[in-house]
Amino acid sequence: MPGGQGLTALAEWGVVTTFDAETGRMIAANRANWDARAPIHVASAFYGLDGSRPAESWFADYEWDDLGDLRGAELLHLQCHLGTETVAFAARGARATGLDFSGESIARARALAEERGLEIDYVHADVHDARAAVRGEFDIVYTGKGSLCYLPDLDRWAAIVHDLLKPGGSLYLVEFHPLLYALGVVPIDGSEELTLRADYLDGRGPEERDATRTYTDGPALTEATVSYEWRHGLGEVVTALAGAGLRIDRVREDHRLPWPRWSTMRPGPDGWFALPGDAPRIPLFYAVKAVKAVR
């Protein structure tokens, strides 16, 4: 049934029990925060789920080149949130599964798939429980675009990704560059300056954030406003994947974003936004393709 939950899913999970109590508390706070965000994001102009923004507009042109022909591919989208990108995979012929720890997000992702008549399995589970929560192995694991900052342990995550892939399968990670996080993913105090305001590298532990506004338009959060993030440098990401036994096939860095972080950014032909030509040319986004060895 379109939008339903098929054979890929084993259970409704959503609770991590294998971290220490303090880390578990922070993950639970993040889950509550994303549950509260979900209805605001669904109604936002930012996501354009009313049809004003096509699903494929969230993808850089090279993503489709790197992913290749998706027809018939078993694809798992980790930390999929509302499924705004998951639907694009299904529309291109992938047998798509989306997984997220927010039950509210998963409910809305299922509704979106149903609305668009797409066959997508959605699983309510924390990414750290993904191997236990879904059956089988996948040709492609896709993740990113604001996901890694919610992971406390990249080595553990990379090992899970490795175990989810078929031999010869690929992880495709597309993520906001650590430099963007250091500059600020959203404007701070209305500043338009390219000023470093936060860490690029890991090492200071989790950052607590208490904010009533998310990165989208819409009303303020009225509950569950506290969340926690972990910084991960690009070197840490690549090293974790290599350490899990994945071969790094390519790494891309991009000066563009799928939304205008700075008011001076202008869209290109594909709808992605770049700073003006006289601004420093800096990486704001990156992609990593990593491949599991064939037995």
DSSP summary: helix tally: 8
What's the CATH C level?
Answer: Alpha Beta
The proportion of residues forming helix, as a percent range, comes to 25-40%
CATH homologous group name: Vaccinia Virus protein VP39
What quaternary form is this?
single chain
Uncertain runs are 1-11
Rg is 18 Å
Largest β-sheet summary: 7 strands, mixed
Taken in chain order, the helices and strands follow as: HHEHEHEHEHEHEEHEEEEE
**Order of strands in the sheet with the most strands?**
3-2-1-4-5-12-8
Distance between the termini: 35 Å
Shape: globular
E-strand count:
12
- Rounded mean pLDDT score: 92
Give the percentage of residues in beta strands: 15-25%
Number of domains: 1
Summed up:
The chain is an alpha/beta fold and 295 residues long.
Topology (SSEs and partners):
Elements: H1 21-43, H2 61-67, E1 74-78, H3 86-91, E2 95-100, H4 103-115, E3 120-124, H5 130-133, E4 138-144, H6 154-164, E5 165-176, H7 178-183, E6 207-210, E7 226-229, H8 234-243, E8 246-254, E9 256-257, E10 266-267, E11 273-274, E12 285-292
Helix pairs in contact: 1-4, 6-8
How would you describe this structure to a colleague?
It contains eight helices and twelve strands. The protein is an alpha/beta fold and 295 residues long. It has a single domain, classed as 3-Layer(aba) Sandwich (Rossmann fold), CATH 3.40.50.150. The strands form three sheets. A seven-stranded mixed sheet has the order 3-2-1-4-5-12-8, with helices on both faces. Strands 9-11-10 form a three-stranded antiparallel sheet, with no helix packed on it.
